[in-house]
Write a structure and sequence with these properties.
single chain; 279 residues; 9 helices; 35% helix
């Protein structure tokens, strides 16, 4: 048994979902059946028809506390080639403030409540009890890793874990702007064209919207292009019937705005996607 697998089993016993990482601190890629989410969803989604792939697919969503899965033959090759272990902070009820350089560490020491800290290659992880949406680059050298994100396991660290403070939650909140009101003032059609609904259950649409939100939220670069491609993917699947509601689209717009998109960029991207698909 590899040292990485032993670490994962120890974390599982403590209720911390983990997964193997390959070189470059990246999760193992999806298998051919799950590539581009062709399987229809992440393996731990609580909905009918979810992916049942036995491999460590879908990044953070593959993290598990099930020792039978961790030690299964399907995961054996991943552990043999693993370069590190990651965990899903949100799945363990935690939030990691990832401080990527000495300047960020110094900022945290003068700004945030003291909590459990773990040394990293370039900085520190400050770990708090509680969850929140993950967000990258909330300030120079600072990322937040909690829900729908993974963090590299680097040890238990030192100090007591403090409750997640408002000061950390506030880091992910953009300054008030018209962008927050955009979903209620859209000037482009939101619904389909009255065609027959091809969806077997409402959860199919909900899963599609959730995956779209995740794709936008997890984007590290090319935000404009990611938002447009996500809108295009959602509309290509769900844009020709009346199931797609204002509430669904508002979730996508809100996710895009949280990444810095303006109301106009959101509206233009949506309109361009409609035009491209002839809707």
């Amino acid at each position: 048994m590899s040292e990485h697998l032993r670490t994962a089993l120890r974390l599982a016993a403590e209720g911390v979902p983990s997964l193997p990482l390959r070189r470059g601190k990246l999760p193992f890629g999806n298998c051919s059946a799950c590539a581009h989410n062709a399987c229809g969803g992440r393996p731990n989604m609580k909905s009918p028809g979810r992916c049942t792939c036995p491999l460590p697919c879908h990044g953070w969503a593959a993290a598990t506390t099930d020792p039978d899965v961790l030690t299964s033959p399907a995961w054996a090759a991943a552990w043999r080639h693993a370069a590190a272990v990651a965990y899903h902070p949100g799945g363990a009820g935690l939030t990691v403030v990832d401080l990527d350089d000495p300047a960020a560490v110094q900022w945290a020491r003068t700004t945030l409540p003291t909590t459990r800290t773990v040394s990293t290659t370039r900085g520190e992880h400050w770990i708090y009890q509680g969850t929140m949406p993950s967000s990258n680059a909330v300030r120079p050298g600072v990322d937040i890793k909690s829900l729908m994100q993974y963090a590299r396991w680097l040890g238990t660290g030192v100090g007591a874990t403090a409750p997640l403070p408002d000061a950390v939650r506030a880091l992910a909140v953009k300054d008030p702007s018209p962008a927050r009101r955009a979903p209620q003032t859209l000037s482009v059609p939101l619904r389909g064209h009255g065609g027959a609904c091809p969806h077997r259950t409402p959860t199919y649409l909900d899963r599609g919207i959730t995956m779209g939100v995740e794709r936008i939220t997890e984007a590290r670069s090319a935000i404009h292009a990611t938002v447009y491609r996500t809108f295009l993917a959602v509309l290509s699947t769900h844009g020709r019937c009346d199931c797609l509601t204002d509430a669904h689209v508002a979730r996508l717009f809100t996710a895009a705005q949280a990444k810095g998109e303006s109301p106009r960029h959101c509206t233009d991207a949506w309109a361009n996607a409609l035009t491209t698909l002839g809707l």
